[in-house]
Amino acid sequence: MAKIIPEVSRTFNEYLLLPNRTRIECSTETVDLRTPLVRHVPGEAPAIELLSPFTSAIMQAVSSPELAIALARNGGLSFLHHNQPIEDQAAAVRQVKRFKAGFITSDTNVRPDDTLGHLVEVMRRTGHSTAAVTEDGTATGRLLGMVTSRDFHPQRHALDQPVSSRMTPIAELPHAGHEVSLSEANAQLWDQRLDCLPVVDEKGHLQHLVFRSDYTDNKRFPHQSVDANKRLRVGAGINTHDYQERIPALLEAGADLLCFDSSDGYSDWQRNALTWVKKHYPEIPVGGGNVVDGEGFNFLAEAGADFVKVGVGGGSICITRDQKGIGRGQASAVMDVAAARDEFRERTGEYVPICSDGGLVHDYHVALALAMGADFVMMGRYFARFDQAPGAKLPTRDGFVKEYWGEGSNRARNFQRYGQGDRLIFEEGVDGYVPYAGDLNEGLALTIAKIKATMVSCGSMTLPEFQATARLTLVSEQSFQESHANVSLRDTAATAV
Ligand SMILES: NC(=O)C1=CN([C@@H]2O[C@H](COP(=O)(O)OP(=O)(O)OC[C@H]3O[C@@H](n4cnc5c(N)ncnc54)[C@H](O)[C@@H]3O)[C@@H](O)[C@H]2O)C=CC1
Ligand SMILES: O=c1[nH]c(=O)c2[nH+]cn([C@@H]3O[C@H](COP(=O)(O)O)[C@@H](O)[C@H]3O)c2[nH]1
Ligand SMILES: [K+]
C-alpha cells in the first residue's frame, strides 16, 4: 500500500507571524534583506548574494531582458527563459550584461531610404519621438543621422519622401565615442544644448543613445545586483534536453548563473545534467528543481546543485495538481526542504540555499516564505503585472490587465519537451490575464517596505535572524475571516447609494 505522510499539506494562507520584541535599533532603515544565492561554506561569503531576496520566474511572460534589468537594479535577479532558440536566449543575456545606466539601446530605428510615412508608423509603435537613421535600420547599424518628430510635420512634408531628406546627417550631428562616461555625456548634452547624444563605436556603428533626463536615474538604485565589473547580474534558465548546446552559448554571452527549469527535478535526467555541468563548468553556479520534500532536496544537493527550487503545482497559472494529482502545499514543502537543507549543512559543512517558487499571492506571503526558511523567492504572476514584463497590456472595463500564461500551456509552445507534435495532449498551465500594476521599481519598493515592516514587528534585522526567531501560528477558518476588513468600504458604500 502507498505510504501516507502524516502531516497535512499546508499553504501560506494558513499561517500568520506572531510579533516578537522589537528593539529601538530595529527599524525599516536598519533591516538588511541580503541573502545567499548559491552554495557556500557557512561563515564564508557566497560567490553570489542578493541584496533583495527576489527572483523572477523562468517564463516567457515574465523574464525578458527589460524585466531582468529592472529587477537586478533593485537588488534581485531574473532567470531569462529558455523556451526560445539558443541564439535568442544568448542575445537576451548579452542585452542585460551590456546594460549601462543612462545608455539606452535605441528602439526607434529606420533606414535613410525609408519613407517619412514609415517613420511615423515606427514612432507610433514605440511611442518615442527620436529615431536613429542607420544603414541597415537596426539599433547597431552604421549611424547616418538622427531624426526627431520636430524635424518634420506629417501635414507639411510629403510622407513618401525619404527619411534622409529631413534627418540631421552624421557630419552635422554631435556624437560621442564608446568610451564616453555618463557624466561626460551629460556635460556634452548640457554644453551643446542637446536632447539626445548618440554613442558610436570605432567603426561608426550605433551603440547607445544618452538622454538628458536619465542622468539622475542611477542614484535611485543603491542596491543593484552587479558582478565584479559592475555589470548587472543575470541568470539563465536551462532544461534537461538541449543543455549541452545551450549552456556554452549562454556562458559565452555572459550569464552569471544557470537554473534547471522543470516541474519535477527529482529525476535522473536532472541528476545527469547537473553532473555534466559540474564536470564541464565547475565554476558556474547552477540551481536545480523543483522539489517539494527533503528527499528531493538531498538528491539534487548531492548531485551538485548550488541552490534548489521548491514548489510543485502552487503557481497561479498551475493546473498540475488538477491534471496529474502531483504537488504539495507550498508552506509544508518549504518547511520540509528547509529542514533538509539545515541537516545537509550539519552533515556536509555546506549551505545550499533554497528558493520558494510559485503561489505567492500577497506581499506578506513572501515574508512567510522567508520566515519558513526560504533564502529567496521566485515569482511569476507578481512580475508579469509590471510594465517591464513582456505580456501585452490590454484595456478592460475594470482597468488594464497584462497577459500571463504558464510554461505548461499550449501558448508556451514547449512541445519539443514532450515529443507531442505541435499540440500538447494535455496542458499543465493556463493562459490568462493579471491586473496591471505599473512600474516595477515602484511596485517592488512597496513590497520591500512591507516585508521590512513585518521583520521589524518580528524584531529581526537580518533574514538569518528572522528565520531563527520567527514564530508562526496556524489560523482557523474563523480567524482567517477575522483577518480581513469587516465593514463596508467607503468607496463601495458611496457607489451603492
Ligand atoms: N513548478 C511547477 O509546479 C510546474 C512548472 N511547470 C513549468 O512548465 C515547464 C515544463 O515543465 P516540465 O513538463 O516538467 O518539463 P521537463 O522538460 O522537465 O519535462 C518534460 C518531460 O520530459 C522528460 N525529460 C526530461 N529530460 C529529458 C531528456 N533529456 N530526454 C527525454 N525526456 C526527457 C521528463 O521526464 C518529462 O516527462 C517548465 O517551465 C516548468 O517550470 C509545469 C508544471 C508545473
Ligand atoms: O503547473 C504549472 N503550469 C505551468 O504552465 C507553469 N508555468 C510555470 N509554472 C510554475 O509557476 C511558477 C510561478 O508561479 P506564480 O505565478 O504563482 O508566481 C513558475 O516559477 C513555475 O515554477 C507553472 N506551473
Ligand atoms: K520524479
UniProtKB/TrEMBL annotation:
Active site: 318, 417
Known catalytic reactions: IMP + NAD(+) + H2O = XMP + NADH + H(+)
SMART domains found in the cross-reference section: CBS, IMPDH
Keyword Nucleotidyltransferase attached: no
EC main group: oxidoreductase
EC number(s) given by UniProt: 1.1.1.205
A Pfam family recorded for this sequence: CBS
GO biological process: GMP biosynthetic process; GTP biosynthetic process; purine ribonucleoside salvage
GO molecular function, one term: IMP dehydrogenase activity
Ranges of residues in domain CBS: 103-165, 167-225
Chain positions recorded as NAD(+) binding sites: 261-263, 311-313
Keyword NAD: yes
Cofactor field: K(+)
PROSITE patterns xrefs: CBS, IMP_DH_GMP_RED
Residue sites binding K(+) per the record: 313, 315, 318
Keywords for the protein's UniProt record, in alphabetical order: CBS domain, GMP biosynthesis, Metal-binding, NAD, Oxidoreductase, Potassium, Purine biosynthesis, Purine salvage
Transmembrane segments: none
Record-stated family: Belongs to the IMPDH/GMPR family.
Protein name: IMP dehydrogenase
Species this protein is from: Lentzea alba
